[in-house]
Structures are given as C-alpha cells and as structure tokens.
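User: Show me a protein chain along with its predicted structure.
Assistant: Here is one chain, sequence first, then structure tokens.
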Amino acid sequence: MDGLLAGQVAIVTGAARGIGRATSERLAADGAHVAFFDKDGDAAEAVAGSLGERATVFQVDVTDPAGVRLSVEAVLAAHGRIDVLVNNAGIYPHTPFAELAFDEWRRVFATNLDGMFLVTNAVWPTMVERGYGRIVNIGSATFLIGYPELAAYIASKGGVVGFTRGLAYEAGVHGITVNCITPGFIATEGTQVEDPTGELFDEIVAGQAIRRRGQPEDIVECIAYLVSPNSGYITGQTINIDGGHRLH
C-alpha cells in the first residue's frame, strides 16, 4: 500500500477494541502491517479479518513475559522488523480507596505499566539495531486532574508519563522517539459500560471547550502523526487530548 507507513511493521497492544482498534485500522490504512496483541483473540480476529494480509493476531497477555517475548519474536521472524509500537492495553476498575485491595492495585499496575515495560523491552533491541523506531504510550487525562475511585489507575498512568520521559532520553541517540498521549473520556466500549446512561459524558462535555464526546478517531489522528517518519523531532512529550476539558 501507499502511505507514510508503507512497508513498516507496527505492534498495537489492546488492539481489539476502542482506541486500540481504531489505531490498528488507521495504521493499516497508512500502509503498515499491524500485529494485534490482545488477550481476546476472537475479538482481535474479527477486526483483523477485515484488514486481510495487513494484519496478524497474537493472542497474548501483556503481563506474561514469556508470551510477550515469543510474540515479538514471531513478528520479527515473519517480517524482519518492527518500526512502530503503540502501548495501548489497559484496565480501569472503579474502586473506592477504602475497598481497594493490594491484589487489585497490583493487577492494575501489572497491565497498565508492567505490560508496557515488557512489550517495549522486547522490541527495544531490534529498534536499536535498525536505528529507528516510534513508540507511543497511552496514558490518561485523569493523571492531570485526578478522579474518584481510580487511585490505582491514575497512579499507573502517572508511571506511564514517567516511563515515557525517562526512556525518551535513552532512545533519542538510537533514532527512536517515545511519546505519551493522555486521552480524556472517549466514547469506547469500555466507557459505555462505565457510563451506560451517558450522565458522566454529559457532565464532562459541558466543561469542555469543544462540546462533543471524544471519539477514538480523535486520538488516532495524533497517534498516526507521532508514529510517522515526519515526527522525528518530537520525543518525551505528553500530549493531552480531551476536547479542552482541562487546559494545561
């Protein structure tokens, strides 16, 4: 395919739904071959099937070190390169702090932060060897404003921002950029479960500069630019995309 990512190979974690799905479809449209990393293999296959030879599904839990490494090795064996990594996989259980058990705290961190480390660590050597790479980590606008019943989630997303900034300094000398996007409350399958009546959406939209619900495509536009060859002078940045809910 023609496009900015023609001939490139991308890994997207949490690729079966929401922002991950929209990202995978956009990167494929821009010419990349997209490796779907997702625990839900059936859901990933349903999306990837529409992309034909431009997509491959790997049923993998990002918290499983061996599974992650084997999947990355399989991508390299099939394509010989990995140019783009979008770390999107995440969970966000709502739990009052008084009820938050340590096991749940650790589960959130294992997916949202440890999983990001494991996948990035696995693709790092090949990006360094080739002297090129684009890494985008998905954080959350809640880190910038706080929110009740999300202490574990927000803390883990704060770690994503720190990880992005720290890694960017080591990555730059190898031709690799590392950036973070913090989406606001975006209309995905997950947020619709959390807000079935739309009351929370209405409350948030009323406080935004842009008075509409955010869509996955709003986030994907920025991701598509940050993973393109044209973004080589942007790294270590956290870009907030929330319709102007908070201006930082």
